[in-house]
Specification:
This protein has 852 residues and is an alpha+beta fold. The chain contains 23 helices and 29 strands.
Length: 852
Amino acid sequence: MALIGLRSPNRWPAGSLRARLLLLIVIVALPMTLLMAVLIAQHLRDEQVRFESAMQHRAAGLAQAVDREIRASIGALNILAVSDTLQRDDLAGFFSAVAALPNTPGAWQGVFLIGPNNEVLLNTGQPQGKPLGAFADADLLDLVRQAPQARLSNLMVAPDGQWRTSVLAPVLVGGRVRYILGAWLAPSVWQKLLDERALPGGQHAGRTCLVEGQLRQLACDRGSEAMLNHPLPDPLQTLLRRQATGWIRGEAFRADDNHAAWQAVGPFSWQVLVIEPVWPTLIAQLGGAAELSIAGLLTLIVAVTFALKLVRREGVPTPAVLRKPPKATTPALPLEQSRVNVLPHELDEHVLIEWAQSIGHIGFFNQAQGNPQVRWTQGLSHLLGLASASHEGSWRPLLRRLHPQDRKPLLQQVKRAVRQGVEQVTLEGRCLSSEPQPRWLSCRASIAYDAHRRARSVTGMVMDITAQKTLDRERAALMAREQVARQEAESANRAKDEFLAMLGHELRNPLGAISAACEVLNRADPQQDVAQRARQIIARQTTHLSRLMDDLLDVFRVISGKVLLVRAPMLLGQVVQRVVHTLELAGQLGAHELSLQLDEVWVHADVTRMEQVITNLLSNAVKYTPAQGRIEVRVQEVGNQAVLQVRDSGVGMTPELMDHVFDMFVQGERAMDRPQGGLGIGLALVRRLTELHGGQVSVDSPGPGQGCTFTVRLPLALAMAPQQEARTEHGASPSRRVVVVEDNEDTREALCALLTLHHHDTYSATEGRSGLELIMQVQPDVALIDIGLPGLTGYDVARHLRATGYGGRLIAVSGYGQPADVQRAHQAGFNQHVVKPVNPSMLEQLLAPLAT
């Protein structure tokens, strides 16, 4: 029996089924719609982040490229700044070296050098003959001098009238900034750099600009040269001044707004600015979202349409078999790859390194983390003298080339730097070299450390500083010589002051005595004894004054080279005896014990000057030896020298005084009463007269209170033959024919008169050519010929006579008596060389050997 009122379980109401199906469609469509909205929002956020990151990476990549170009120029300038020519202030040599460089960095439009007063000393960017111009930014020059490091200028008008930027590097000389070296950089360099890294037009609707420190445009990747030197808009200037690196998003509902990303160029004040307009960017981002939305909407429409068809189907409802709606297949989202400009790892480093090594004797090395091998350049192999062609190996071959004395200290310095965590270290040392002097090298190394402060890698540059070290040594030697010269000048100045004081003392004493004696003569009877003593005082003091004046005149004649020596063979002991006899007659030796040991020693010297030498030595011994003291004089032959020694038992000398005792105006310590007198020029005269004779003088003293020994050494001369002495003592030589050739009338007449008095037949001529003809005509026994003749010189006359076979005796008469003058006379054919004025007795000796 059928149960009335119960619905069959196999049949659902149509209305209820339709409602349930609609509810099911809504339940399924609502999460899908929400999911689609979330996906679209996420897609928009991802696109925005990607776009922002791409702009920031592009700005950073371009900033890195500009920074590399700037640093390449700075490195090249730093190399030129340590050149030897600049260190020596040789600006002409530096200009020639720069002009002759085979390769310079391509960005340079010229090199200029600025002096201490901001004046431009040279500028290779200006044609020859045009003004060098001036550097417009004086504040930047002051900044380089205050903090010596490389700097980058902003846009300015260069001397050639074009807009330029410049790189500046200080030139350090002696640790201070002497010059500022710079290079001009044209804006076209930066324009080219941006153009080479520009994105295709479809991927980049905005523009990229390089901005200098004053926020003026240097270059844009769209080639807008008209924008050069134009300032950025005020809102952008505010943003870029606020922070060196950043990003700003434009407003989406303003058609004229832009996105902007900017990046600072290294430590410099320049910035790279990337600008993209808002609407093209938003449209590109919404395109992907639209595709995603359309795909989701189509999927939803298909699902709803299928459900509605089921709902509208007629017939007996059957249990609803709810099919899952077909899974929406989301197509792969087209994620556009970020296009970031990738810079090359090398910006002409190899060219720059080779260029630097070729002009500056520079080498480089590097050791990377975890690699025990060291890599170095050909320049370092050249510096260290490594014969191997390989540029990689251990540290051992490099260290072996260091000087043994510098190797250990340099290694200790490096180890100490690593222990202290020093990142920059500078070393100097010598390396082995085939040259006589070692080569000096300077190494500047950068050490990188890991998080545990352990050395991770090292990179360094080695430079040849031999020339700089040589200059430093020469400068130190010059300063030392200057110090010594200053001390000597101060000592000489003090000695001069002491001399003037002594001169005043020495002059006042005799003048005072003479003045008092004159007053006595005015008041006393001339026949009284007191008047006689007064006259003796005047005579004695006048003689003393005359001797002072003679000493002064003699020493200054010797210093100025106006003393002419009249040399003759003499026994040195006989000269000593004459001087001793003179001093005894003057009463100067009565208070001392004098001992003489005189051997027979011959010298060829001026008798008068040798008497001065011996007199000064004995007077000095008397002055500084107390009464009853002992004075010894010895003359002896030692080797090929005649040695004169004067030894006393006086006050002696300190080592400091012995070093300067022969200088002008130097005297030992004496009492304030100065009983001995003197000006301190006697020993200076001794040294100079001895040196004029080809000898030398020295002093020795064991110390104060132990006496002194003065030693004079002179060249030894041959002893005169006994018959020559006998002939000189007896009568004159027989009459001879003598020709005198002399251009000075007084000298010629005096010689002729002297020869006539000795019964010689005398002929004379006034110049070389007539003298030659006269000698050829007369054929004299002896010819006295002056050297400095007009026309033919005396040497020419002698050569012509010897060439014609003349065999008479030729005697050169000259005012010059140096050994070179004597040798030249003998080479010309003269038998004898005589220095003016001619001594009559010597002339007779020269004529005497002709008698037979």
